[in-house]
Amino acid sequence: MRCPRTSTSRLTGLLFLAATLLCAAARPLPQTVRPGRAEEIVRRIDELYRSDTSESTVEMEVVTPNWRRTLRMKVWSRGLSDTFIRVLEPKKEAGFATLRLGDEMWNFLPKTAKVLKVPPSMMMSSWMGSDLTNDDLVKEFTFAESYHFEMTMPESPEPGILYIKCVPKEGLPIVWGSVVLAVREDDLLPVWERYYDEKGGLARTIAFRDIRTFGRRRIPSTMELVPEAKAGQKTVLRYLEAAFDLALPADIFSLRNLHGGL
Asked: Is there a domain that residue 146 lies in?
């Protein structure tokens, strides 16, 4: 199974067999829903973690049937194209850094003090042993611009939840057959996103929870990513601190900074 392209800003904070039926059974929502509601919701989801700049402290917990580990990282972002990540803890991984500039990506390995550019052949490899891939950190597709979407209704809807089915537009390198979003009706905050492959099978789920306020922004601070094909495995991202739309030195997003030069 090929992996999706999800930006770190949705780490676009990030992160079930019965849900397979949701996509297959989805049907158009009754006409009582006002026109433009689906577009309003997908644009809200697109912009939830997005800003001109951001600086955050993020905890990433990786769980597998055989082991579990937790990393603490600082993450800086600029627009949709630039991201810098530095691992702070544990000591064994401290100093590891990743720089993304547009479609290019580099990793800094502190043990050897080397900067390595990630080649195209490695883009689908796991990032730091998690369920995120290198490709997830580079590619960025928005629901509003890259998908066709419509309100849908599952066979057993939850009270107070709205559902949107998104299908990729033709000609874009998106691997999903469809994505179904669930949001709270009162504030349009996401509850979960379910990604389906081209045959309609559930590939992975990102669940959102622990709503917190950072500055003037209210967002789910925890994202749990569960890959359907890997039993007992998940990656959990937790925003510990976050600030949006602040002035950042341009040198943060530089190869020099990979060495810890700033």
From this structure: yes
Residues 6+ apart with CB under 8 A from 28: 150, 151, 152, 153
> Which CATH number characterizes residue 90's domain?
2.50.20.10
Radius of gyration of the chain measured on its C-alpha atoms: 18
Distance CA 33, CA 150 (A): 11
Distance CA 143, CA 140 (A): 10
Q: Check: CB of residue 185 under 8 Å from CB of residue 202.
A: no
- Under a CB-based contact definition with an 8 Å cutoff, are residues 25 and 178 in contact? no
118, 186, 132, 173: which is closest to 6 by C-alpha? 132
Distance between CA atoms of 66 and 3, rounded to whole angstroms?
22
Quick check: is 3 in a domain? no
**Residue 48 vs residue 71, higher pLDDT:** 71
Tokens representing 132? 């995120």
Whether 174 is covered by a domain: the verdict is yes
Q: Which tens digits make up the pLDDT trace of 130-145?
A: 887 767 666 667 888 8
Give every CB contact of residue 203 below 8 A, 6+ residues apart in sequence: 1, 4, 176, 195, 196, 197, 227, 228, 229
Classify residue 246: in a domain, yes or no: yes
- What whole-number distance in Å separates Cα of residue 97 and Cα of residue 118? 12
Give me 96's structure tokens: 């590891």
Residues 159-187 have pLDDT tens digits of: 999 999 999 999 888 889 999 999 999 99
Residues of the domain holding 26:
8-15+18-253
Angstrom distances, CA of residue 160 to CA of 62, 189, 234, 254: 31, 11, 27, 45
CB 167 within 8 A of CB 178: yes
Q: Domain total for the chain?
A: 1
- pTM beyond 0.90: no
